[in-house]
Amino acid sequence: MTTDFFPVTRLRRWLDRILAPSARSAGTHEDVESAYARWAPVYDWVFTAPLVFGQRAAARAANRLSGDLLEVGVGTGLSLPLYDRKLTITGIDLSKPMLKRAHERVARKGLDNVAGLHAMDAADMRFEDGQFDLATVMYVMTVVPDPAQVMAELERVVRPGGTVIIVNHFARERGLLAWIERGLARFAHKLGWDPLFRRETVLDNTTMTLEHEERLGPLGLFTMLVFRRA
Ligand SMILES: C[S@@+](CC[C@H](N)C(=O)[O-])C[C@H]1O[C@@H](n2cnc3c(N)ncnc32)[C@H](O)[C@@H]1O
Question: CA-to-CA distance for 37 and 228, rounded, in angstroms?
Fold first, then answer.
């Protein structure tokens, strides 16, 4: 019997394939697209539990508002059923395989408040200035190649007085988690996100006002930032 039939070996090969960095330099749109083409079939299975805290918190904050909501980096649409039906939702994502699953979820759950799901780059959105009343951006800022440009685009497409809700992991300055993050940073290209991504990368690239900040589970790993456009 060859080791090919040994489940651990198979599992290791599958993980290698999923985590394998692209042959190109890290951080390009092609890297993101090839990484999420690999993640799409197993994304919900792997990420539902760790990401649900932030998705629920962002949806709760969004559901206090009304109007047209843009979800940037909607992925497989895990958060779409969490929004109040009074909100009209548009989702965008760079990855077509992730969007395909979001389309399937919308059909399966009968989410008739989802107006559209589009393949689009968050750094170059094909929307009018001030087209949306609010935007949500969950677990995306660490992944995009140009977070400063994404912040500029968010500020452009949300109307004056509108709200931008960001959920992300931000690097710690000190303590055990900071130490762990510095260790993980060596594997950033394999993880597909940057454990040393700084909160200032978001704050320093917007003129929007930070109105609320909240640490979220699991273990306070993620943070929600709520901005208002002047
Ligand atoms: C970690 S997943 C988060 C998905 C979803 N927000 C959730 O909470 O499950 C990151 C998503 O961002 C998308 N993404 C990465 N770069 C992007 C970009 N420049 N424009 C639009 N979407 C992007 C990826 O394709 C992926 O679906």
Answer: 34
Specify whether the CB–CB gap between 104 and 43 falls below 8 A. no
Contact 228/162 with Cβ under 8 angstroms?
yes
23 vs 10, 20, 26, 27, 135, CA distance in Å? 22, 9, 8, 12, 33
- 92-145 pLDDT, tens digit per residue, is 999 999 999 999 999 999 999 999 999 999 999 999 999 999 999 999 998 898
- Tell me which fold the domain 3-228 belongs to: Rossmann fold (3.40.50)
Please give all residues whose beta carbon lies within 6 A of any atom in ligand 1, as ranges. 32, 36, 51, 55, 73-75, 78-79, 92-95, 98, 121-123, 138-140, 143-144
Q: Which residue has 């440009």 as its token pair?
A: 149
Burial class (CB in 10 A: 0-12, 13-18, 19+), 46: exposed
pLDDT in tens, 153-196: 999 999 999 999 999 999 888 888 788 877 877 776 666 667 78
Residue 194: predicted pLDDT: 75
Supply the pTM of this predicted model.
0.87
**Integer Cα distance of 198 and 168 in angstroms:** 10
